[in-house]
Structures are given as C-alpha cells and as structure tokens.
Design a protein that fits this description.
single chain; Heat Shock Protein 90; disordered N terminus
C-alpha cells in the first residue's frame, strides 16, 4: 500500500503550522481570546521577538476550572455551536483551535481564575498534553505563557524571521487591536523594556492620535446598514492604511488598495467599517485575516464619499469674512508648484499631478492622463494656472493623482501667522 493515514500526532502538528506560523500569530490568538473574555486590560510581554517567551495577561472573566483542560482540545470553543452561528458571529475566535495549535508546538502554562471562583488554577501543557493542573492564588482573569515556540519542530523554527522582524510584527499587531478597541488598555513589554502603554479612552480619535502622535481628522458616513468611520492624518509625511471590519483587523487587498488610491501614499488612513454579519464571510482564511464581502462596490462608494465629503479642502459653505470662494493664485515655484491661497490655507500644488487628475476624471486612462498633462518645469501663464485651479475645485478627488500620489501640501494661514508672532 502506497497511501497511508498519517498518525494523529503528525496531523496535529501540520494543522498547527497552518494557524501558528510565527510568534505574532500566537500573540494574535491570545489577544483575541482576551478580548472575547471581556478584558478591560491586556498586557503582552515577549522575549527574543517572541521566539523564547510570550505572555498575554488579561483581567477578563477567566476560565472555569472544569473547562481548563478542555481549552487545549481541538475544536473546543464557547463561541459557536452550529455552523449557522457564523452568520451572527460577534466574537474574534470561533474555530476552537487557537490554544490547541499553540499547545502542540510549544511548552505552555495557562493560569486562570473564573470570575465567581475563590481561587485560580494553573495548567502546564507540553506537545498538546496536560502535565499537571493545580490551584494557585491570582486575581480574576487569565495569563497564558508560551515558551520556546516550535521547539519540537526545528525546521519550522529555522524559518522564523530575525528577532527584530518578529518584534516589529507583534508591535504592529498590538497596535491594530489597540486601534479597534480603544476602551481596552494595552501594555507591551519586549526584553524587559516597555514599548507601549496605552490607557483606555472613550474617544477612538484620541487612541488613534496617541498611537501615531499626530493629528487626525474624523470622517463619518452611514447608509443602507453600512457605517464608515475613518481617520485621516492631517500631515503628509508617511503613508499607512489600516482596515477594520466589524471590529476585526483585516487584510482585504482589494479594499486596502482602493483606500490607498483615494487617500494617497503619504497620509495615514484608518478605516473602520460596520455592516450586517450576513454581508461578510470571516471563515475564508486560516488566520481570519481576510474576509469575503457582499456588495463590495457599495462599500467602496461609501468609503470614497466619506473621504471626499470632508476632505482636506475647505468647502464653499465655510466662506466668510474676507475669504474668497475660489482659490487665489499666489505664484508658481520653479515652473512646477502652483501656490494658491484658498479660504484659511495656503496650498502648494504639483501642476503636472493636478492636470493629470483633471484629465483622468474627464475619462482618459491613467497612462494617457499622465502623458497629456503639463510637465514639471513647463511654464504656465497666469490664465492657465487660474484655469487649473478652477478645475481643481470641481474634482471628485482633489487630493491625489490617479496613481495615489498627493497633489498638494497645505499650510493653514493661522500656522504661518503663529510662526511669525502674529494672529490671524
């Protein structure tokens, strides 16, 4: 016989490798368990990028003593009972394989005290088997410690990235959950040093600005049961896009690339989508990173409209006092940058990118729009520059070229006056 059935031990290690491929995968599963347990505070500690040691500690409801040995069994979960429950899923975990897969490829210590119990319990696990369970004093909540990830799979361990890379992945992961759950406090330690300490906040915008240390503008739009809440950085220094759907960090490439085209390459965009559970399938990726969406075109339309509605150009409804309803040409720098004063700001606009966007919105392909646009260094007359500025105010996307590059840089006049000791 050439076809053989793999032993259970081998099958378990293979399936564990599908879900847990790195220390960050391990941290993800444990953080999601903590959030599902209604934790208000989550602490993460790693050593050697998580290769040597991972700790995730929370103050959630804890694990009942009778359930403690069950949590490492395959397909053991308190989140769902039937396949139909996926249609109304609100928890992060649901497959019942997180702790099971981690226990198969590490040495693990789980300590937990259930909220209505007087004492806690500690359980040691190696290669998926319980070594012991014993009582221990501890506050309500759960602490999971993972030692020597992939110690029993040396080939898999050799494929782990460098410590710095694994550490960076975990930092970005913790940031994602901190962004989507601002009401939960997060603390991250690495090799004995505090990397992150975020107190709980009520305002999501405050959490976003705490993490990125820059100012953001909040955009809101809701229609047909779909809610878009986005935060866009005011500055144009570096680009980063994050997407969350129903409070879950996701890597849906189609939507991420679309948001990037709308926002541009040099802004930070944090987009939160809320929609009925029946409109998405979260069971399409082993690690639950991706989701399949219904009506993705409508979702794109709402994202685009929410961003363009608020935008970074002042709307004409803001006109007051000495402000002009149309941009005023201040000058042109090196036959490349159009300088315009509009409302309460100065705008520095790339003339090539501006006409490229105008051509694109008139129906040309991005390639033809680029080739037919005025080039950097090509002299413009005052009339030509004013015509471009007038067209600029009519664009559906007046911020980025068709390829996603920002078309302009904005400086509030108030900031200029402040720098020279005057008030506007």
């Amino acid at each position: 016989m050439l076809v053989k059935f793999l032993p259970e031990e081998v099958r378990a290690k293979i399936s564990a490798g599908e879900v847990i491929e790195s220390p960050s995968d391990c941290v993800k599963e444990l953080i999601e368990n903590s959030l599902d347990a209604s934790a208000n505070r989550i602490e993460v500690e790693i050593i050697k990028g998580g290769k040597r040691y991972i700790l995730v500690k929370d103050d959630g409801v804890g694990i009942h003593p009778e359930d403690l040995p069950r949590v490492i069994l395959p397909f053991s979960t308190s989140k769902i009972e039937r396949f139909e429950d996926l249609m109304s899923l609100r928890s992060y975990g649901f497959r019942g394989e997180g702790l099971h897969t981690i226990s198969r490829v590490s040495r693990m210590l789980i300590s937990s005290r259930f909220f209505n119990q007087e004492t806690g319990y500690e359980m040691k696990v190696e290669e998926g088997k319980v070594v012991y369970v014993r009582e221990r004093g501890m506050p309500v909540g759960t602490k999971v410690e993972v030692f020597d990830l992939f110690y029993n799979l040396p080939v898999r361990r050799n494929f782990l990235k460098k410590e710095d890379t694994e550490r960076t992945r975990i930092i970005q992961l913790v940031k994602s959950y901190a962004l989507v759950r601002p009401e939960v406090s997060f603390r991250l330690m690495s090799d004995g040093k505090e990397i992150m300490n975020l107190p709980s906040v009520k305002d999501p915008k405050e959490r976003v600005e705490d993490i990125y240390n820059t100012r953001f503008e909040e955009l809101l739009l809701e229609r047909d049961g779909i809610k878009v809440r986005a935060f866009l950085s005011v500055s144009q220094k570096r680009g980063e896009i994050r997407l969350f759907i129903n409070s879950r960090p996701v890597q849906n490439r189609e939507l991420l690339e679309y948001i990037k085209r709308v926002v541009g390459n040099r802004r930070i965009g944090i987009c939160f989508l809320e929609m009925p559970q029946y409109m998405l399938d979260v069971n399409v990726h082993p690690k639950k990173w991706d989701v399949r969406l219904m009506q993705v075109g409508k979702v794109k339309e709402l994202i685009s409209e929410s961003i363009k509605r608020k935008a970074y150009l002042p709307s004409l409804s803001q006109e007051k006092g000495h402000y002009s309803a149309e941009p005023e040409l201040v000058g042109i720098i090196e036959s490349t940058i159009i300088v315009a004063k509009w409302m309460d700001s100065l705008y520095f606009i790339d003339q090539h990118l501006l006409e490229e966007r105008i051509n694109y919105e008139k129906g040309l392909s991005s390639e033809r729009a680029c080739k037919s646009a005025i080039k950097a260094g090509e002299k413009l007359s005052t009339a030509q520059a004013n015509k471009l500025l007038k067209e600029w105010t009519k664009l559906s996307n007046p911020h980025t070229c068709p390829h996603g590059r920002p078309m302009h840089y904005r400086i509030p006049l108030k900031e200029v006056y402040k720098q020279i000791g005057r008030e506007l």
